[in-house]
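Hi support team,

I submitted a single chain yesterday and got back a structure, but I'm not sure I'm reading the token output correctly. Could someone confirm the output below corresponds to the sequence I sent? I've pasted both exactly as they appear in my results page.

Thanks,
R.
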Amino acid sequence: MRRLPPLPALRTFEVAARLGSFAAAASELNVTPSAISHQVRSLEAWFERLLFVRGTRRVELTPDGRRLLSGLTQAFDLMHDSCAVLRSPDQVRVLAVHCAPSFASKWLGPRIGRFMQAYPATTLRLTSGPEPPDLRRNTGIQLGITYGAPPERAAVEVQALGLEPTVPMCSPRIASTSEPITPQDVVRLPLIESKLNPVHWADWCRVNRVRLPPAARPSFDRGSMAIAAAVDGLGVVLETLRFAESELARGELVLLDGPGFRRIERETHFMCWRRAERDHPALSAFREWLVAQLATSPDGLST
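Hi R., thanks for writing in. Yes, this is the structure output for that exact sequence:
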């Protein structure tokens, strides 16, 4: 027999932790904030440890709370999907997508509303994380969008999301593009490392035939963080144009590029799905929609 705390208390905790607010959780669950607080206290008593640090307007998870939440949301998603398969397809169509964090925040997030408007009958459940999902074991996810190398899994199909140019970019405060600039000029500027990007400064310098200065450089383990650092004027970031569409459009970043530069283009994002589910209606619709969005992307990417 499984020894578990009461299911209503676990459900209440998951909603409050996900929303970061007892009041917001009360609104979603259609109960009073005091009922949320009571359920959370009962769960803390069951575990004999605090799960939240209470604030005036918001609550924050303790380390124990974060550990509990990490698996609980996925568990409830799996329960939801298991129940959903017994309902009529006309009643519900759920699509669970797991996405690399920077792609989710910088490219997919600003467009996801278009999918929801085009397919109102599909309920999209989007999660993000750096590790690619193992679709053989995690049946609660129908589609994975991964970063880096294409995942190799038996019975899993993979499709690259196009070639992505990786280009030096910086704030206009760092370097003006009104005058011609050379690759040698670029490496004289402060450089930012985007650690997870498979294209590094050493690769770019080798292709552009310049010497990489042997200096320590600030580094970030998310492309979105490296882009933000460049916007703040910390230096020049070498990243995919896919992550910098908004910043380039607003003039917060400028490209350090030109006739004397050689771009590096690689396939770095991939979507994957179980071969047995390739004809799932919501999954097929999302794949087709995503490819169409890439084809009309304004960043000059080839797909």
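A quick pointer for reading it: Residues 45 and 239 are 48 Å apart (CA to CA). Let us know if anything else looks off.

Best,
Support desk
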